[in-house]
């Protein structure tokens, strides 16, 4: 099973690129983020024509996550538990061939000086950790949590550690919570298979020629439960879509799990 995560930065604006990539790469499961549309406006017809089932948790103008799968998606749950007043569409879960998957669009948290945004990010991460610890891990079902985590785990994961030191993506509070999540027993798939690698990114800003100069950050991750990690065979960053015309500022990251 090949599972990919892809922040599309507006499914409507990037639909030609997404369809092109789905046809070329053919992943079994796709975890999409930043749809920027409500459920009814999601381009289901075009994606279903490529053989995918769809589960969407959308929101007008902002956020929005989805799961695409060549197999049936069952037991879909929308929204991250822990705060009934949180209406932002940032989390969706479903089960595909015995594997529980989630598409995650973690809050950015910037500007840090605006406490409300940064504190929301940290509280959201605490809720995610609690959900994994209290609900997903005790179930002993293999699971993969993929998405835009808006966290650079270490200084090896961005082009300018000094310049980004005070950014919400790199603050100690954000990194500490990401480590706490992993320390529950999860495996960060790309890093596990590329220990010590430096200069590999999944996001490049549109400004200042960041893509052309390869000045990026690695913030799109696939976290695997112990049962899923035991089946991990490969994990790579697919930079091809980022070099296309009118691309997302992110590019897909995928992992491959061998059959159980």
The appropriate CATH architecture is 4-Layer Sandwich
| SSE topology string | EHEHEEEEEHEHEHEHEE
Beta content comes to: 15-25%
Helical residue percent band: 10-25%
CATH class: Alpha Beta
| β-strand number | 12
* Average pLDDT taken over every residue: 97
Structural domain tally: 1
If you had to describe this structure to a student in words, what would you say it looks like?
- The chain starts with a strand and ends with a strand.
- The strands form 2 sheets. Strands 3-4-2-1-12-11 form a 6-stranded mixed sheet. Strands 5-6-7-8-10-9 form a 6-stranded mixed sheet.
- By secondary structure, it is of the alpha+beta class.
- The longest helix is centred in the middle third of the chain and has 22 residues, at 115-136.
- It is built from 6 helices and 12 strands.
- Strand 6 (91-96) and strand 7 (99-105) form a beta hairpin.
- 45% of the residues are buried.
- The model has no long low-confidence stretch (mean pLDDT 97).
- The chain has one domain (2-257): Endonuclease/exonuclease/phosphatase (Deoxyribonuclease I, Chain A, 4-Layer Sandwich), CATH 3.60.10.
- It has helices at 11-25, 44-48, 115-136, 172-182, 189-193, 226-229, and strands at residues 2-7, 29-33, 53-57, 65-69, 74-78, 91-96, 99-105, 143-148, 187-188, 220-224, 232-237, 253-257.
């Amino acid at each position: 099973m090949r599972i990919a995560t892809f922040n599309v930065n507006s499914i409507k604006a990037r639909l030609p690129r997404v369809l092109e990539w789905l046809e070329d790469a053919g992943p079994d499961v796709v975890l999409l983020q930043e749809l920027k549309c409500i459920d009814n406006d999601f381009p289901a017809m075009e994606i279903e024509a490529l053989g995918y089932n769809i589960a969407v948790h959308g929101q007008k103008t902002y956020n929005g996550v989805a799961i695409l799968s060549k197999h049936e998606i069952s037991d879909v749950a929308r929204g991250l538990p822990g705060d009934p007043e949180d209406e932002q569409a940032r989390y969706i879960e479903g089960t595909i061939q015995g594997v529980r998957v989630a598409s995650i669009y973690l809050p950015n948290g910037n500007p840090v000086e605006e406490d409300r945004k940064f504190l929301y990010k940290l509280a959201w991460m605490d809720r995610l950790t609690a959900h994994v610890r209290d609900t997903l891990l005790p179930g002993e079902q293999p699971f993969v949590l993929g998405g835009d985590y808006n966290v650079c785990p270490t200084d090896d994961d961005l082009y300018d550690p000094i310049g980004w030191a005070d950014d919400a993506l790199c603050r100690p509070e954000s990194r500490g919570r990401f480590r706490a999540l992993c320390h529950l027993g999860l495996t960060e798939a790309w890093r596990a298979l590329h220990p010590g690698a430096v200069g590999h990114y999944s996001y490049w800003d549109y400004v200042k020629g960041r893509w052309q100069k390869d000045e990026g950050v690695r913030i799109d991750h696939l976290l695997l439960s112990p049962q899923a990690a035991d089946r991990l065979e490969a994990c790579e960053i697919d930079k091809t879509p980022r070099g296309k015309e009118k691309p997302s500022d992110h590019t897909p990251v995928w992992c491959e799990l061998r059959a159980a």
